[in-house]
Structures are given as structure tokens and as C-alpha cells.
Amino acid sequence: MIRIIFLLCIVWLFGCNGRDRSIEKNEFSLNELYNSDVKRLKDSVFFKGDTLAYDALSVYYIDYSIPSEFMFYSLVMANKYKYPQSFYDVFLNICRMYNNDTEQMDDASAKMAIIYLLQASELGHHQAREEVMSSNIKEEEDSKDVLKRILEKN
Fold first, then answer.
1. Each residue of 47-56: pLDDT tens digit?
2. Could you write out the three-class secondary structure of the chain?
């Protein structure tokens, strides 16, 4: 009887282990995109305003940390297609390009970051709306001071 239970346990362990490997082989990761896939995503964003392609591209760029390259696609989606997430991404990308250091940031970049944050909020982007409300942004206030306050909270 003990031998039968032992054999069943071994079969069960190896059976589950084999299933896990087959699942891993079928998983798709945006980390493993090929250049042709990335090119297709970029084209869909640029020429069609494809929000799903934009979101996939944003995940790809998170892994490879190239904010200046992703900034181009964020600006296209924001200015051409008015996609709320892309307005917020422009704000984030400007902050990342300066390593969240407002002392290094020029006034024009700080002002641009705030403008895109406000636009994202107006278009209903949840995180942007929370940032704007909790930071109590005033139009006459210096953009670098506003950014400093926002970045210190996070």
C-alpha cells in the first residue's frame, strides 16, 4: 500500500512539473519583442493612434528605460490623437529625463511638464487628476516649484 501511494506521489510531482514547463513556453512577454514587432507597434502608434500598441510600447520602454525615445511616441499620441495616458506619460518622461531633479530642469521643460499634467487631468486621467488636486496647482505659480512639490510627495 505504501508503495502505491509513493508511486502516485512521484507521478503527481512529475506530472505537475511537466505542465508548468509547457505553460512557460507558451507565455508571451513584451520583454522578448523582436525588432519587427517593435517596429509594427511604433507604426501603429504613429500612423493609426492605436492605444493598445501604445500601451504595449510603453511596457517595452519601461524595461529598456529609454524615456527620450518613448517621449516621441507619447507626444504623437497626445498631440495628434489626444490619448489621456500619453499626456501623463509626457509629464513622467520629462521628469525622468531630468532624474526627477527640478534643479537641473530648465523652466521651459518644467512648464511643459505641468501643461501636459493639467491636460491629462482635464481629459480624465485618474492619476493626473489626483496629482493636480493634491498639489493645489495655481496658474501664477512657478512650474519648477509645482514640480518640486509633486516629486517630493512621491
1. 999 999 999 9
2. CHHHHHHHHHHHHHHHHHHHHHHHHHCCCHHHCCHHHHHHHHHHHHHHCCHHHHHHHHHHHHHHCCHHHHHHHHHHHHHCCCCHHHHHHHHHHHHHHCCCCCCCCCHHHHHHHHHHHHHHHHCCCHHHHHHHHHHCCCCCCCHHHHHHHHHHHC
